[in-house]
From TrEMBL:
It comes from Desulfopila aestuarii DSM 18488. This is Replication restart protein PriA. Keywords: ATP-binding, DNA replication, DNA-binding, Helicase, Hydrolase, Isomerase, Metal-binding, Nucleotide-binding, Primosome, Zinc. One of its GO terms (cellular component) is primosome complex. HAMAP family: PriA (MF_00983). The keyword Membrane does not apply. Component of the replication restart primosome. PROSITE patterns: HELICASE_ATP_BIND_1 (PS51192), HELICASE_CTER (PS51194). GO terms for molecular function: 3'-5' DNA helicase activity; ATP binding; ATP hydrolysis activity; DNA binding; zinc ion binding.
Length: 842
DNA sequence: AGCACGCCGACT
DNA sequence: GTCGGCGTGCTC
């Protein structure tokens, strides 16, 4: 009797114990030694069946509960390697999320079936008068016509007050019945019918000039050897099969291809099967996600000195094995990709596999081209943009070891690679690495945890590392690698600041000051490309001093206040501090405080008016919704078919646009006004990243930055590319009031349809936390409750409580406390979500 | 999450 | 006096 530790796909914190009954064989193929760990099972839970993930075998039951039998073993081999189990447990514990849900989120969608109930009309009761006399409701007609209802329809019906009772009566009468069935996965391995020749056909001894001679040869041969009389169609089929077999790896001919060559094969195959000359088998096929040919990138003939220095540290670490975290700070254009490629090659030489995490699909596609150019077929792409079946295929390739390199967005951190030797995280500072719904994990942090657990090298890289990561490097937690120079000794672009506060003298007010306008015109005439960045973050309602450009800040929190017109208040979304909207500027005393913000399209329109002949394209959240269109725009830009690309942060990310020589930023300080303690850090990163788009080709780049606050350190330091000064300044500022890396944060989000319930719940949670930490000696602070910066989403009101603590233990204790007492703390139907290390403060 | 068990209002 | 509402609490 074997007991198993199983994580069920339900919100239960603990793992459960189930028995593997003797009648269920774990290994239907007869091999009794293969473990169940990492495989999926179907288990009874309460009154239904759900997917369970086997985490351990031969466990000891505590005897506290009755142990039920597994209903079914769903896989013949593991779907995730056992090395990931420790990561799943860590995540469950760290992010306070049920372990089964963690695994469900980690696996490709559609791999966690559950049982559903369908209402059926009992056949013998088809003519039941009581049933037939029911009103002509849709469900009754469907039942009569099809005999059964879909799971969704059944659920809806049983939830309705009007019909529940009637249905139950008919079930009692034996007219209707509820049938339990397991939802089909949706994602299945795609199988293909293949044929295999059972009799070896010798090549014709002499070169036979035409096909009909070959057919005759086959017929004579088989007649002589086996006494079989072949029809012409059979001989022809054999001939084409032989051709296909020679091309295939495993000596089989796919039915589809065979029929394309020779339609008569449909009949021929049937006859050949009867004669036992051909057998049929089903084979896995893999659907290629590569829509089109990838660009080829040749390997460089030599590396830069800095690349060599970095690799001289990374490669030995990979060869020796053991947990070694690196932070690679390499300016834009310094050739970080080549470092990833060389490091990957080193890991592959050790027989290890490699995981590459990027913040965004578009970047994955770009990196993929580099990796495929160097390593060919061993590379797979794993990201949410793939269809469920494509994702499943890529997953299987990684699991089976056929793919050695996985490139993907944050969820690829769960890639089922065995023998991992290296994890690379590109653009490690990017907020896109943080998942901001349901399980709120940070892909970069998980990369470090996975590397630590598996004792391998992790390489975090960025032109603008996050302040927290850089601080870790300064403290010695990470090994710091620096690349300060661009490949080919190209200089970083010259950055010019344009002060927006200086009044425009003449005529119509434009979003572009003369200097930028002139540069754009000249660049267009010279046939070169430009990029214009609009900092979308500046579009929320902030109040800015017209005289000095300073936004109104919170007294305690070092974040910008948000304008609430309805209440005429300026409100802090961290702690709830508020002032009347008519206030004075703290830095200059001016009363000239005005709300800011302008429309995105206006930038595009104005550019088009300015340069009617220019091909202008826009890249923002609106236009990026369609992934294909988004990638198409990037491709057009890369191919030089767009003159000016306008966009939000998206245009700034590590895209390689070789023809861009001019970059303009419409309003650089817009992002400084967002209510986020990292506003300055993010603004600096954005400007630096977009600046890096200029002058990557042969011509040196120019950058024009329009700003209300040229003297603000985030902007002035970006002008001089002074990353290290920015870090120093930020670290100084974050000591008081304390923010990461000096404290840890958790945001507790409360949302629900009733504003009152949400507010009351938030207050109770905050009060309970305050009471719980009264005695604590080490630093802990509870901020709020306060409405979330975006305080109403889809009919839901949102509030938040923020907890700052010096020790992670206190933070975790509070999280557990809130979760355990949720029932008492939360009123009505409010949802509570814990966000550890929050990235997006909105 | 589902689903069962369990305690208070509108009906026969 | 019953039926049935949906509030708490468990699921190996």
């Amino acid at each position: 009797m074997m007991l198993l530790e199983i994580a069920v796909a339900a919100p239960i914190d603990q793992t459960l114990t189930y028995r593997l009954p003797v009648k269920i064989s774990a290994n239907p193929d007869g091999d009794g030694t293969i473990s169940l760990i990492g495989r999926r099972v179907l288990v009874p839970l309460g009154g239904r069946k759900v997917t369970g993930y086997v985490l351990a075998e031969d466990v000891v039951a505590s005897g506290e509960f009755k142990i039920r039998d597994i209903a079914e073993v769903l896989d013949v081999k593991p779907v995730f390697p056992c090395s990931l189990i420790a990561l799943f447990r860590w995540i469950s514990n760290y992010y306070h999320y049920p372990i089964g849900e963690v695994i469900r989120a980690a696996l490709p969608a559609g791999m966690s079936p559950r049982s559903v109930r369908c209402l059926e009309l009992v056949d013998s009761a088809r003519e039941d008068e009581r049933f037939l006399s029911l009103p002509d409701e849709k469900w009754r007609i469907t039942l009569q016509e099809k005999g059964s209802l879909s799971a969704a329809a059944t659920k809806e019906l049983l939830a309705s007050k009007v019909w529940k009772k009637t249905i139950q009566q008919f079930i009692k009468l034996g007219v209707l019945r509820l049938c339990e069935s397991v939802t089909s996965d949706g994602v299945k391995e795609k199988m293909e019918v293949c044929y295999r020749l059972q009799h070896w056909l010798p090549q014709p001894s002499v070169d036979l000039p035409d096909e009909s001679e070959i057919f005759q040869h086959y017929r004579r041969q088989l007649d002589a050897e086996l006494g079989l009389e072949l029809k012409l169609s059979e001989a022809k089929t054999l001939y084409y099969m032989k051709g296909l077999e020679e091309k295939s790896v495993d000596g089989t001919s796919p039915r589809k291809e065979l029929l394309e060559l020779y339609a008569g094969a449909a009949k021929g195959i049937c006859d050949l099967k009867e004669k036992r000359l051909v057998t049929e088998q089903k084979k896995r096929v893999f659907r290629s996600p590569l829509g089109e040919r990838l660009e080829f990138f040749p390997a460089p003939t030599e590396l830069t000195d800095e690349q060599n220095v970095a690799l001289a540290e990374i490669v030995p670490a990979i060869e020796q094995g053991g947990y070694t975290p690196f932070l690679l700070h390499g300016v834009t254009g310094s050739g970080k990709t080549e470092v990833y490629l060389q490091a990957t090659a080193a890991a592959l030489r050790q027989g290890k596999s490699v995981l590459v995490i990027v913040p965004e699909i578009a970047l994955a596609t770009q990196l993929e081209a580099h990796f495929v150019s160097r390593f060919g077929e061993q590379v797979v792409l794993l990201h949410s943009g793939l269809s469920a079946s494509e994702r499943f295929d890529q997953w299987s390739l990684a699991m089976s070891g056929e793919a050695k390199i996985v490139i993907g967005a944050r969820s690829a951190i769960f890639a089922p690679l065995n023998d991992l030797g290296l994890i690379v995280v590109d653009e490690e500072h990017d907020a896109g690495l943080k998942q901001d719904d349901s399980l709120r994990y940070n892909g970069r942090d998980l990369a470090v945890v996975r590397a630590k657990q598996q004792g391998i090298v992790v390489l975090l890289a960025s032109a603008t590392p996050s302040v927290v990561s850089y601080h870790n490097a300064l403290c010695g937690k990470y090994r710091l690698l620096t690349m300060d120079n661009r490949v080919g000794n190209r200089s970083l672009p010259k950055v010019t600041l344009i002060d927006l506060r200086k009044q425009q003298s003449s005529g119509k007010r434009s979003l572009f000051r003369p200097q930028l306008r002139k540069a754009l015109e000249e660049n267009f005439i010279a046939g070169r490309q430009s990029v214009i960045l609009i900092n979308r973050r500046g579009f929320s309602s902030n109040v800015l001093c017209q005289e000095c450009g300073t936004p109104v800040q919170c007294r305690d929190c070092h974040v910008t206040l948000t304008l609430h017109r309805s209440t005429q208040q300026l409100l802090c979304h961290y702690c709830g501090y508020s002032v009347h909207e008519k206030t004075v500027c703290e830095s200059c005393g001016s009363m000239q405080l005005v709300p800011v913000g302008f429309g995105t399209e206006r930038v595009e329109t104005e550019l088009q008016e300015m340069l009617p002949l220019a091909r202008v394209a826009r890249l923002d959240t609106d236009t990026a919704k369609d992934r294909k269109a988004f990638l198409q725009t990037l491709k057009l830009m890369r191919g030089g078919e767009i003159d000016i690309l306008v966009g939000t942060q998206m245009v700034a990310k590590g895209h390689h646009f070789p023809g861009v020589t001019l970059v303009g930023v419409v309003w650089a300080d817009g992002g400084l006004a967002i209510p986020d303690y990292r506003a300055a850090e993010k603004t600096f990163q954005l400007i630096t990243q977009v600046t890096g788009r200029a002058g990557r080709g042969d011509s040196p780049g120019e950058v024009y930055i329009q700003t209300m606050r040229p003297e603000h350190y985030a902007i002035s330091l970006a002008r001089t590319h002074s990353y290290r000064h920015l870090v120093e300044k930020e670290l100084e500022l974050r000591k008081n009031p304390a923010f990461p890396p000096f404290v840890r944060l958790v945001a507790i989000h409360i949302q629900g349809e009733s504003e009152q319930d949400v507010e009351r719940s938030a207050s109770r949670i905050a009060a309970a936390c305050r009471a719980a930490v009264k005695e604590k000696k080490s630093f802990v602070e509870i901020l709020g409750p306060a409405p979330s910066p975006i305080d109403r989403v889809k009919k839901n009101y949102r509030w938040q409580v923020m907890i700052k603590a010096a020790s992670i233990e206190i933070l975790d204790a509070l999280c557990s406390y809130v979760r355990q007492n949720q029932q008492e703390l939360v009123s009505g139907r409010c949802k509570v979500m814990l966000d550890k290390d929050p990235e997006n403060m909105m």
